[in-house]
Amino acid sequence: MLNYLIFFPLISAFVVLLLNCGGVKVFSVVVSFMILALNLDIFADFLQGTSFDYNLSFKILKFFSFHVGVDSIALILMLLSSLMIFLSFLFLKLEQKALVSCIFFLEFAIMGLFSAKDGLLFYVFWEFSLLPLLYIMGVYGKDFRAGVKFFIYAFAGSILMLVALIYQAYLNYQLLNIFTFDLEIWKNNTSAVNFTEQLLLFGAFFIAFAIKAPLFPLHTWAPKVYANSPVLVSVMLVVFKMAPFGFLLFCLPLFPDASVYFMPLIVALCIVSIVYNALIAYRAENIKELIAYSSISHLGVMILGIFSLNALGISGAVFYMFAHGIVTGALFLMVELLYQRYHTYDIAFYHSLAKKAPLFSIFFMLILLASVSLPLTVSFVGEFLILLGIAKINLFYALLAGLVIILGAIYMFAVFRKIFFMQKQSFIENFSLRLREIVALACIVVMIFGLGLMPNILLKPIQKDVDNLIKTMNIRAVEQNTLDFLSKMGEANVK
After folding, report:
1. Smallest Cα–Cα separation from 419: which of 330, 323, 355?
2. Distance from chain centroid for Cα 311
3. Pairing assessment for the beta strands 53-57 and 65-69 based on DSSP bridges
């Protein structure tokens, strides 16, 4: 079943190229829905206790294996990806064969990446995911320089990751006489990496993932890419939580001592990222850039939760990945709808949209409530747990992050008021939503408030795997300071 989910998008990508323009629109929606349904079926089976693990070894490349498997964290992120791809196809109704094919190629890479249990396989899918994005930005983007900058950053991060993977495999070879990239073997080998080596390897992986996240000060490529790329690129970059997942897959379980050692620095970087990008968003004149900077600020909150290194914070971070993906992805789609109608992203142009597009305004307001993490929305649950988790480490950091989030909310509401209710002497035509747009937005709103009211649907399976992650960190830790810290965090969670 898992292999079907991985390779179905790849087959679909080739089939798309054989269709006419009219067939592409229908095919993209139908096939993306089938992938989503398959993903939901696997998730339901997983909750019932079914294990998904497949390992295919190669005789020629003995160090490489097609080893795939999933836990609840990976499945939820895969579900987020397939869901938003389906809703994007439904919302946008695309006709370009090359563009749709690239998205299916991208979905194939993402499904493979989240399910990879082999470090080298993870790297292959990671690199493969960059190719469709670069093609779309190059062919359909407004500024090729943004694409070039993205490529340079991504390539630098990839090289660092590859070097770290090879060195980690070499360390295991020295101890076990087996040259392998299998993550299960790496995690079960408790003594392969000493403290100094952990620091070096952690640094390489962290920089690679921080670039892709993006996290301050390695975020400079992101705003222009979000603003000048086709909306699908913006949505996909927001939806595909590859970098936060990488922190959970590599940094925390493989290098627990380095994670604890660098935790104060990373937390400080996250706080700076949250504050800095919130301030830049405040000055933004382009509505797409505004959402981009707001998204990067929220990513700082997400990584803050991961490096709280306790069950509350990490569980909240994973839940927030899902929330952030659907909410920010929906905002990008709605902004694109405005652009299609009025052909500008300039905030100053828009006014009185509540009269001109009442239904659009209602949907935008509901999704904005989730973006600012209002209680009873899906984002509130994730951010609340993250702030609780970071408060276990430092109450001041939690208060500062919470204050910035509140200030960001105030500014977002101010922009909403300006765009939708402010009266100006200019002509803006009325517009109404199409049925497919209403269906897509209605699905998003239902999830926003449904998961906000019933978060345990996702939280319960997440918490189980987060507990296993923390146990792995305790087993692999070699420094007493690390064990003491993790024990303290565990006691705090119990209390």
Report:
1. 355
2. 19
3. antiparallel
**Which pair of tokens denotes residue 481?**
């300071």
Q: Residue holding tokens 């949907």?
A: 363
Do 153 and 211 contact (CB within 8 A), yes or no?
Answer: yes
Does this model's pTM top 0.90? Answer: no
Domain ranges of the chain: 255-495
Nearest CA among 4, 117, 120, 1 for reference residue 69: 117
CA angle (283 as vertex; 279, 285 as ends), nearest 5: 145
How far, in Å, CA of 474 to CA of 253, rounded? Answer: 9
Looking at the DSSP assignment, which residues form a beta bridge with residue 432?
none
Query: What are the DSSP calls for 260-287, one per residue?
Result: HHHHHHHHHHHHHHHHHHHHHHHH--BH
Say if residues 416 and 493 touch (Cβ distance below 8 Å): no
Task: Write the DSSP symbol of residue 98.
Answer: H
42 Cβ contact list (under 8 Å, min separation 6): 1, 2, 5, 52, 70, 75
């379980």: which residue's tokens? 253
Q: Closest Cα to residue 35, out of 92, 110, 94?
A: 110
C-alpha torsion 200→205→207→209, nearest 10: -170
- Helical (H) or strand (E) element with 319: helix 311-342
Q: Give tens-digit pLDDT for 401-445.
A: 788 778 777 777 777 777 777 766 556 777 778 888 888 889 899
CA dihedral (145, 148, 154, 160) positive or negative: negative
Distance CA 491, CA 485 (A): 10
Residue 394: phi and psi, rounded to 5, are -150, 115
Q: Which residues is 394 bridged to in the sheet?
A: none
Give the ranges where 48-179 is alpha helix by DSSP (H): 72-92, 97-115, 119-140, 144-176
Residue type, 194: N
**Model pLDDT for residues 269-321, shown as the tens digit of each residue:** 888 888 887 778 777 777 888 888 888 888 888 888 888 888 888 999 999 99
Q: How many CA atoms lie within 13 A of 271 on its CB side?
A: 19
Whole-angstrom Cα distance, residue 323 to residue 318? 9
Cβ atoms < 10 Å from Cβ of 141: 20
Please give the single-letter amino acid code of residue 76: I
d(CA 116, CA 123): 9
Residue 219 token pair: 């975020």
d(CA 487, CA 273): 29
> Quick one: which of 144, 152, 459, 484 has its CA closest to 316?
459
Whether the CB-CB separation of 314 and 466 falls below 8 Å is answered with yes
Which tokens sit at 378?
Answer: 């899906």
Length of the chain: 495
The residue assigned the tokens 């565990």 is 490
